[in-house]
């Protein structure tokens, strides 16, 4: 429904307003009951919360979406370096903290921007980390955003519980789970999947990273991290989850991350870049609700 | 009974000669791998070793040593560790042994993690050990502080820091070094893991995760560089199966690298 429908009375508060259907101006309006029930409220457009890094670059550059990346790895914030934003600072204004922009439509926030030296350690227990995450969500002036992507540390602890709790009002579209092929990784990832189920986060799918390496000299493929138990593919089959794609190892990925350059721009024809493109294309439309199984 | 009470009073770490933390700021660099391989190398050198796995959300040690899911028993002094070998040279404690379902997620906030780690440090009857290795999750948070607080009464020899060669990894490990300095933990040295990959087909070496970062970090921070461990699919496969890589592949360059690191570590502990 349009925010002010054509048959609305004068002084209509707007269908998305908290006063929709309830203000005195609504009396006699044909839409009053619908608005009062809340059904007319437009779904919050801002928060499609994924967990990934490169996907967002594609989404922002290719699909021209407005993307925000929130780094909640409080102890090990890698995003500033990977995005080429080391040394950038966060500015405060009347409307809150300004995120750091990679491009006009790609904003980033990380505790990395608040540390004065690359040697600074964030030696914080859970409650303090939670407080920081809350501030990131509450005080950062993100503006209008199509996709908020949240990068998390490994584990199923304070950061994960807090981000889920704090975003519950906005609604989380889902999680993208990253694994490498070997069982030692899958073993932990299954726990992460259980976590998502417990906190009722839909799983958009799984990405298998570091999935094979093609030798640049002889072009033979080696499984450096061997999928001894069938890799992400078997796990996804067993758990009835979508396998979004597999990204092969490419030394140029590491180099791009270290140099803060966009791997997708630097080496667009790499098999890894192609893999990322395919992953985003398969999910570029409004994400379907993954099953909560 | 009287003897046991005396042992209890002295604490379960009383007969542990050396305690070494295995740390990294970064996830996925191979802390558990390096902990496992160091433990095996030390055992092959005739030492009695313990591994305390305080990665409560992602305990990898049980699988890497193929100890399955045995029951953890109690004795007068506390919990009996799980032994990886019949000769009881390698003792392990991990939350992995306490979970009924191995896929069960440990969704705990800091205080609960801190409490269990306190128990792991104080209430496991390690007995006589030459070296207790403590495998940690990435970061500088509850688990790390809990380990240090509970080890306060006992000497911590220091920490081995694991990184991969990339700047994104060493960037986090620098913070871990600061953590060690702030908490007065001696840095025994830096290990650079995943340091180059030699193609088994043509022997070309590819620096998949960049090159040299570990050594540079050691120079930058005035730390000892313990050595580099290459990316080796045979090592990865051994860990998958819980096989003793050092016994299976003694002629590999990875074996040489790990043995040298273990020997250097032992020398600095015994010095």
Please sum up the structure shown.
The complex is a heterodimer of chains A (293) and B (271). In chain A, 31% of the residues lie in helices and 15% in strands.
What can you tell me about this protein's structure?
The complex is a heterodimer of chains A (293) and B (271). Chain A has 293 residues and is α/β, with parallel strands linked by helices. Helix content of chain A is 31%, strand content 15%. Chain A has helices spanning 32-37, 54-61, 79-82, 126-139, 158-166, 183-198, 231-239, 251-259, 263-266, 271-282, and strands at 67-71, 91-93, 96-98, 100-103, 106-110, 147-151, 175-179, 203-208, 213-214, 221-222, 243-246. Chain A has a 4-stranded mixed beta sheet with strand order 4-5-1-6, with helices on one face. In chain A, strands 7-8-11 form a 3-stranded parallel beta sheet, sandwiched between helices. In chain A, helix 2 packs across helix 10 (271-282) and helix 4 runs parallel beside helix 5 (158-166). Chain A is globular, with a radius of gyration of 22 Å. In chain A, 46% of the residues are buried. Chain B is α/β, with parallel strands linked by helices and 271 residues long. Helices cover 39% and strands 19% of the residues of chain B. Chain B has helices spanning 2-10, 31-44, 61-64, 110-123, 142-150, 167-182, 213-221, 233-241, 245-248, 253-270, and strands spanning 16-23, 49-53, 74-75, 78-79, 82-83, 90-94, 129-135, 158-163, 187-192, 197-198, 205-206, 225-228. In chain B, strands 5-6-2-7-1-8-9-12 form an 8-stranded mixed beta sheet, with helices on both faces. Chain B has a two-stranded antiparallel ribbon with strand order 3-4. In chain B, 56% of the residues are buried. At the A-B interface, helix 4, helix 5, helix 6 and helix 8 of A face helix 4, helix 5, helix 6 and helix 8 of B.
